[in-house]
Write a structure and sequence with these properties.
mainly alpha; Ferritin; 5 helices; 74% helix; binds MU-OXO-diiron
């Protein structure tokens, strides 16, 4: 059984993961409409992964005697200034998610909730991978600069990074 404090904190994380899915979905749609099919594919997959992260949390809360709350979501932005700005937002967002996961882990230790602490280790590892991937993408974009041919190749190749090491977010059985 989880404490109401941990239940509330986990439900906050459900909200954050659902928002992540929603934001990446909006980014994917923007990219697809702009003819960036590789980037769109990457972001559609990323959005699906975030939904898995949300679902895994929600199911865990229910299994532990709480109530996983399906949250109301804000409408995400419709447009982005450019590809670099978009991926910088992805990186900043993932850094924020990591910080929130770390806070959750800390709360579990304070509350002596070792079961939830153990459950959250998956998210800790996942965040390391997600941040590393977002940084790798930003590094590539910095190298490309304003080179149109480079951007064409980036869009073609990024689809292969979709789900690269981060598609393990299956909901808990
Ligand atoms: Fe589930 Fe990208 O945080």
């Amino acid at each position: 059984m989880i404490s109401s404090k941990i239940e509330k904190a986990l439900n906050q994380q459900v909200l954050l993961e659902a928002e992540s899915s929603q934001i990446y979905l909006a980014m994917a749609s923007w990219a697809e409409v702009g003819g960036l099919s590789g980037i769109a594919e990457f972001l559609f997959t990323h959005s699906d992964e975030e939904r898995m992260h949300m679902l895994k949390l929600l199911k865990f809360i229910n299994e532990r005697g709480g109530h996983g709350i399906v949250p109301t979501l804000k409408a995400p932005p419709l447009k982005y200034k450019g590809i670099k700005e978009l991926f910088q937002e992805v990186l900043d967002h993932e850094i924020h998610v990591s910080a929130e996961i770390n806070k959750l882990v800390e709360s579990c230790l304070k509350e002596k909730d070792y079961t939830t602490h153990n459950f959250l280790q998956w998210y800790v590892s996942e965040q390391i991978e997600e941040e590393a991937l977002a940084r790798k993408i930003m590094d590539k974009l910095k190298l490309i600069g304003d080179d149109k041919a480079g951007m064409y190749i980036f869009d073609r190749d990024i689809a292969s990074l979709a789900g690269g090491g981060t598609a393990k977010g299956k909901p808990a059985e």
